[in-house]
């Protein structure tokens, strides 16, 4: 499979076959803009709560915002057909090109509201949400889910087949059950059971970190494309690398990290961004400055002064990135 080849989702063309996974609290607009710049084929918003979007909450609209390129793919979550359909209309009217339905999130606060992967426990109810979303809009609707709730209910093939019959035009499968969360190894072979029953494009997700991983998950799953999530934390360019784009030189990494920080300051405002950016700063430092002293790391992670953060972050990554990239290349 040539991951650099275009992928068609209904009437929407995607420039390559590597997608950045939707990750709540991670794939905000600045992150998606960087991922797109460096070659990701498809990027997806953070999960947008359907009812909150219809009720016009500030957070839902912040998550809905486009990042300035096409296609704009919005992921919706919810447990009621009415709100999913109405939210799909709002998203489409706001410029969404594709609506993705979240049936894969394993977080307790999501499944506690009977959304995300909890929907896999009641396929009949899940189908009412899918049907309502498909009927509400003229743009493609896609579905992201897991293998099942647990190892005793691997019902992804059953749900996928019904979803395709309801009009879903692409399906993404994370190769774990909900009860696995992110533990253990994703079961790439189990995804093939979905490939065997649907004809729409299939994306395989779970533990894809290297070009070799991408090649292997496609071979074992029979999927048409791959999705990478946590492997892009601290390196938003990495989806593009899997698609064949050239990643940044080691000397550029510090500049990209600082630019990412500035983009977040602009997007959220200083007060929110200082706190919200720290997870990203931590991922950059874990990947590219693993030898940084605890004192220097703490100075970056706790400072409330943006200029100080930028200076210290740049210094730390400039010193460490070359050695780390050399090891990764080897």
Description:
With 330 residues, this protein is an alpha/beta fold. The chain is 46% helix and 13% strand. The chain is built from 15 helices and 11 strands. It has a 9-stranded parallel β-sheet. The protein has a two-stranded antiparallel ribbon with strand order 1-2. Helix 7 links the parallel strand 8 and strand 9. The longest helix is centred in the C-terminal third of the chain and has 24 residues. It is globular and about 55 Å long.
Alpha plus pi helix count = 15
Poorly predicted regions are none
Give the overall average pLDDT: 93
Strand element count? 11
Main sheet: strand order:
4-3-11-10-9-8-7-6-5
| Biggest sheet statistics | 9 strands, parallel
Structural class by secondary-structure content:
alpha/beta
Distance between the termini: 25 Å
Query: How does the overall form come out from the CA principal axes?
Result: globular
The percent range for helix content is 40-55%
* Alpha-carbon Rg, integer: 20 Å
Residue share in β-strands: 5-15%
Query: What pattern of helices and strands is seen along the backbone?
Result: EEEHEEHHEHEHHEHEHEHEHHHHHH
């Amino acid at each position: 499979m040539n991951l650099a080849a275009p992928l068609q989702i209904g009437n929407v063309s995607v420039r390559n076959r590597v997608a950045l996974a939707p990750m709540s609290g991670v794939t905000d607009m600045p992150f998606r803009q960087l991922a797109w710049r460096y070659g990701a084929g498809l990027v997806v918003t953070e999960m947008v709560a359907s009812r909150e979007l219809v009720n016009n909450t500030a957070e839902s609209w912040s998550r809905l915002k486009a990042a300035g390129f096409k296609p704009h793919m919005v992921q919706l979550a919810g447990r009621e057909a009415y709100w999913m359909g109405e939210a799909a209309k709002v998203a489409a009217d706001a410029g969404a090109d594709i609506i993705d339905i979240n049936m894969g999130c394993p977080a307790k606060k999501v499944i506690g509201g009977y959304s995300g992967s909890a929907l896999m426990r009641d396929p009949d109810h899940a189908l009412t949400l899918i049907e309502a979303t498909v009927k509400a809009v003229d743009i493609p609707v896609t579905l992201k889910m897991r293998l099942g709730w647990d190892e005793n209910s691997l019902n992804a093939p059953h749900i996928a087949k019904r979803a395709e019959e309801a009009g879903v035009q692409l399906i993404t499968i994370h190769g774990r059950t909900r009860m696995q969360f992110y533990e253990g190894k994703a079961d790439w072979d189990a995804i093939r059971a979905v490939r065997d029953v649907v004809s729409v494009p299939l994306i395989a997700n779970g533990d894809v970190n290297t070009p070799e991983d991408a090649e292997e998950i496609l071979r074992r799953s029979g999927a048409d494309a791959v999705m990478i999530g946590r492997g892009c934390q601290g390196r938003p360019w990495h989806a593009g690398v899997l698609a064949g784009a050239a990643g940044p030189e080691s000397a550029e990494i510090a500049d990209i990290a600082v630019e990412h920080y500035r983009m977040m300051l602009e997007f959220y405002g200083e007060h929110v961004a200082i706190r919200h950016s720290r997870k990203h700063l931590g991922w950059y430092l874990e990947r590219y400055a693993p030898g940084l002293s605890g004192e220097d790391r703490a100075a970056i992670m706790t400072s409330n002064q943006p200029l100080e953060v930028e200076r210290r972050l740049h210094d730390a990554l400039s010193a460490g990135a070359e050695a780390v990239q050399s090891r990764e290349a080897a």
